[in-house]
Amino acid sequence: MAGRVAGNPFKGRDVISITDFTRGDLELLFIEADNIESRAKSKPLEGKVVALAFFEPSTRTRLSFETAVKRLGGSTLLISGEEAISVAKGENLADTITMLDSYADAIVIRHRYEGAALYAAEVAEKPVINGGDGRQHHPTQAMLDLYTVYRLFGSVDGLTYGVLGDLRYGRAASSFILGLTLFKPRHIYLVSPPQLRARREVLEVLEELGIPYTEVEKLQDVLGELDVLYVTRIQKERIPDPREYESLKGSYRVTLDLLESSAKETLKVLHPLPRVDEIDFSVDNSKYQAYFLQARLGVKVRMALLSLVMGG
Fold first, then answer.
1. What angle do CA 36, 42, 47 make, to 5 degrees?
2. What is the pTM of this model?
3. Domain of 190?
C-alpha cells in the first residue's frame, strides 16, 4: 500500500475514498488541473505504465483515464470484463493485482464489490486508484465534480446544492456528498424517493461535521434555492429487486420548462453520465446545462491526479 510523501500529498499515494483527502489536497489538485495542459508537454509519465483493471463495465471513466495517461506520455495495460480475463477461470483478485503490480507503475481498478479497491491497495506496492467500487466510493468522479463547481463558480463554498435521484446505490452521488463535506456548503438538499435515500453512514458524516442538510422527496419544493443541481440516474444494475427498479424508474425528470419556471437564472445542472431519462434533452442547449463541461473536465482532473501521484 502506497502512502503520502511530504511536500506533495499525492506523491505515490493510493486514491481510495474522497474522504481520505483534505480541502488543501483538493485545492492543490484544482491548481494542477488548471495548469496540466502546459505541464503535459514535458510528458511526466513518459516510460511509465498504468494498468486499467476494469472488472465492471465502463466507458467514460475508462476512456478518460486512458486518454489522460496517453496525453501525459504514458502507456496503458487494459483488462476489462471478468469474462475476458483469468479471474473468470478461478484466479483470485489478489493474484491478479499482484501480477499487475509487477507490470505497471500504478493500477486503476473498477469493481462491483465495495472494498475491492482498498483490498487491491493492501496487496499492491504501487499506487492504486479507485475508478469506482461498490455503492459508495468513486473518488475521481467526486474530484472532477468538485472541480467543475470550482470552475463554474470560482469556489465550492457558500452554495446551495441539490443532489437528486438514487442516493442509496449511486456511488457518484455518495462520493459527491462526501466531497462537499471538505468544503463549506450553505446547504445540501438530498432529493430522492424514500426507498433511495442516502445511506446512514453518509448522513452520519454530514451530522458529525455539522453540514446542514435536508432530505426531501419533491424537487419543486427546493429547486428555487439551488445553485447546483446534481442529477443521477436510478441505478438499475445495483438495485437487487427488478420490481423495485420498475417502480422507481422515471421518478424524476428535469425539463427545461421546470427550470425556467422555478430555478435561479444562475443554476447549473450537473450529471456524472450516462443519463437515461432523468434530464430531458431540451436542457442540453440551455444556460443551465453544465454536464458536458463536467465530462470534458474529467480528462484534465485525471491528468492532474496521475501527474501528482506518479510524476510528482
1. 110
2. 0.92
3. 139-295
